[in-house]
Amino acid sequence: MELTRRSLLKAAAISSAMIAAGCTKKEEVAIPEPKAPEKDPVQVETQSIEPDAWKTSVCRYCGTGCGVLVGVKDNKVIAVKGDPDNRSSRGLNCIKGYYLGKILFGKDRLTKPLIREDNSKKGTMDGFREASWDEALDLVASKIKEYRAEGPNKIAFWGSGQQTVHEGYTSVKLWKAGLESNCIDPNARLCMASAVVGFMTTFNSDEPMGCYDDLDLADTFVTWGANMAEMHPVLYSRLTARKLSGTNVKHYDLTTYHTRTSETADSVMVFRPQTDLAIANCIANYLIQTDSYDKEFVADHCQFFGGTENLGHTWDDNYDASEIGQKVMGHAEISFEEYKERVSEYTFEYVSELSGVPAAALEELAKEFADPNRKVMSTWTMGVNQHTRGTWMNNLIYSVHLLAGKISQPGCGPFSLTGQPSACGTAREVGVFSHRLPADLVVNNPEHRRFSELIWNLPEGYLDSIETPGFHTIKMFRELGNGNVKFLWSMSNNWGQTLPNTKRYHNHEGIAPNGQGIMDGFIVVSEVYPTRSTEMANVVFPAAMWVEREGMFGNAERRNAIFEKCQEPPGEAKWDIWAMVQVAKRALDGKKIGDHDAFDVIFGKYGPDIWDYAKNDLIDEHEVCVRLWNEYRMFTAPHLHENPAVQELGSKLKTRAKELAPYDEYLKQHGIRWPVREVNGKWLETKWRYANGKQEDGYDEIGVELMGDGKKKNKDLDFYKSWADHKARIYFRPFEEAAEVPDAEYPLWLCTGRVLEHWHSGSMTRRVPELHRAVPEALCEIHPDDAAAIGIKDHDYIFVESRRGRTKVKATTIGRGKPPKGLVYVPFFAEETMINDATHDVHCPLSKEPDYKKCAVKVYKA
Ligand SMILES: Nc1nc2c(c(=O)[nH]1)N[C@H]1C(S)=C(S)[C@@H](COP(=O)(O)OP(=O)(O)OC[C@H]3O[C@@H](n4cnc5c(=O)[nH]c(N)nc54)[C@H](O)[C@@H]3O)O[C@H]1N2
Ligand SMILES: Nc1nc2c(c(=O)[nH]1)N[C@H]1C(S)=C(S)[C@@H](COP(=O)(O)OP(=O)(O)OC[C@H]3O[C@@H](n4cnc5c(=O)[nH]c(N)nc54)[C@H](O)[C@@H]3O)O[C@H]1N2
Ligand code: SF4
Ligand SMILES: [Mo]
């Protein structure tokens, strides 16, 4: 039987009903058939048909940002291969990249706008009818107007690190300037928020100082909670290549279970979840106790800070942690003596007891930081960020590197890995956050608002209406669930599956404790395939995906790169920018900004001029990209603006620290790393920020001179974006227990994450037959002793149940990951295995990023 999506859902509903009724019938979780087309449209590696052209592109999955060349014949994508001219990946792709072309051709692409007729069928793809774009756009715009009239936080936009730079910029401009609402946040809140707040609190400037070149030069690698072998595979192959080519290159893997990454590490330190906080502190303590920290570096470039209050966690209805966050932000400068005193508690013996890592292994790692002759590169991803103390963990990794003076030098430095293809370029750089404006600017700073008003041609004081940050992601969805947010538009994400504690919104087992607002609210989902989120929608906009439009992503090493348009989208699917501008035209109708129509200021003739008034439609797509770029670029290159007020304020705000090049350069160069500067007619990129040296060699010399407020130290380095004295902050942050710890009732830790072959909710990769066949279903990895304790064999079904919800999943003791006793691991890619029904939405009070990596569960045979 070919399972359609509908029959699949029905099967799931029946089995749920039986579970609810206490039935014990064993029913397998239905694994969907891949919905790939019968005839394979995309060749992989071997080309029997020669394409008409190879277009320049980048992969749309992970933050590595690999270059991809796309073979096009008769305006159709027929082949993909690695791009040797992309300096981030040098011709390599991973398995997802090699099969990338196939995501365009799934059988069930959304090709027509859908309008829900039957609200009682929300939660399924039933109850929709097809509609014309005009009808769907009119409806959405009228709902925005209706609910915006009730207040700015009634209408929400949930964006993504998978939106292009231009799409993110358009959403920010529409929401913040057009609709005067800060109720806009991205899925990057679930991913990079702790990294952002970590950067801002330590350096007052977001994003890494180093780059991928460090992977070729380091002597020691430390992975602090990153399974790079599966999640950043091309970067991992560069790390392993360095291990093979260098002498005495070491890799230390800190992790809560043995992963693919652990397999090639020299030292694998499996620690008890959350004790990473203590581990970082014991390294700092060692550097101080042995007097092996870099005294000159610390004296010149650092100051000590403490924000030490043990403030408890942010549970349940106390989910808006802003008050707690404020308190924690009220940290203070402390003396070196105080710092020394506070870390002194973290001896190897104490931390070994806490974490389960042998003291000798901890000491060996600490010695790497203490050795002045070793270049150490740290990398981390979600193990560190998805953490109730995610900001603290980021601070602590920087503390260790700052104490050791190992930062911002070739082969040496802390490198926060980014997950999504444009979490940096889009979410962070253009500011798709409730508190942000483009280029590190924030809404609650009057000078930042003035500067944005100048660039956006808004009257002085106009943006004062968005002075207060809007709802962050967790709050946004909780308020939607509670019925307080009444309109939601989501784009390039699949919140119905990927949010934590999804039981608040779904009724997979017939329970929807807070889901009423989801039923009653008006939800618009821009998507390319039916998903757990489109099921919740009132209107579905069919979107053009990947190379069906032109776009730009910004990757983890600050490289912005363009992908060219290669084919038309199917049916009536449209570019997300087209849909946003069309909605803007309707929703802003009748609104004035100063003397002008609001639409003309935001997108039209008094703004970026991307509207063709004669056609009553967008101008040419490439030209839209160029003009939006030119406007956005002024945030980072104010000296190019004709208005002296922009130049003056921009230089005061140091926005040039992110300077970007003219748009077409990015295609010509197959990507460029910011800050970008024109030197002798060439646009040069920066490899090591804050590092003095020639721009031609990739150092930030010009940046340091420009930003130094005349304070250039003429030393190796200057944290020029940081506070008045140009010093970075070494924080003391204490160990604090996880928010939920296993106990007698829920005796195991649950960790969730990913697998190499699938992308997040699997909506794209499960439609690629090769990837689906490789990993057709989610498996729960469990230690053999824990499996024996509940009397199961491999591939038996078990329930993984937390205080919030449960999911049924096959167990394995011989998976890729090998959890220690007491911990189970479940990936979240499979929509029939909703592990997020079990996770919790407890989050870091500073970054508001939830902890998907640890909660307490019990498991039992299904
Ligand atoms: N194949 C594939 N690649 C991807 C993605 C994908 O969906 N599929 N998604 C991309 C995105 S958006 C992201 S964010 C990244 C995620 O990349 P990763 O973070 O590398 O992957 P995850 O599977 O989310 O997390 C697994 C890691 O979390 C660590 N961990 C668990 N608990 C703790 C803890 O308490 N402390 C610490 N320090 N570590 C802990 C584990 O040790 C393990 O290394 O992957 C990106 N790359
Ligand atoms: N349990 C658990 N849950 C997690 C995590 C975890 O570690 N554990 N990690 C969290 C993290 S780090 C992240 S980043 C999130 C990711 O979570 P999401 O971003 O919510 O999940 P995706 O599956 O990446 O959703 C992207 C969607 O965009 C659609 N799409 C593709 N191209 C386009 C386009 O051009 N336009 C539009 N409109 N749509 C498009 C795809 O079909 C896909 O469904 O998941 C979070 N959830
Ligand atoms: S998924 Fe990541 S590593 Fe793989 S090809 Fe794409 S960008 Fe490169
Ligand atoms: Mo992510």
From TrEMBL:
Name of the protein in question: Nitrate reductase
Top-level taxon of the source organism: Bacteria
GO cellular component: extracellular region; membrane; nitrate reductase complex
Subunit description: Component of the nitrate reductase NapAB complex composed of NapA and NapB.
EC number of this enzyme: 1.9.6.1
Binding site for [4Fe-4S] cluster: C59, C62, C66, C94
Record: residues binding substrate: F828
Organism per entry: Anaerobacillus isosaccharinicus
Entry-linked HAMAP family: Nitrate_reduct_NapA (MF_01630)
Enzymatic class: oxidoreductase
Annotated binding of Mo-bis(molybdopterin guanine dinucleotide), by residue: 96, 162, 187, 191, 224-231, 274-276, 382, 386, 494, 526-527, 576, 752-761, 836, 853
Cofactor requirement: Mo-bis(molybdopterin guanine dinucleotide); [4Fe-4S] cluster
Family: Belongs to the prokaryotic molybdopterin-containing oxidoreductase family. NasA/NapA/NarB subfamily.
Pfam hit, one: Molydop_binding
Gene3D superfamilies in the record: 2.40.40.20, 3.30.200.210, 3.40.50.740, Dimethylsulfoxide Reductase, domain 2
Main location as per UniProt: secreted
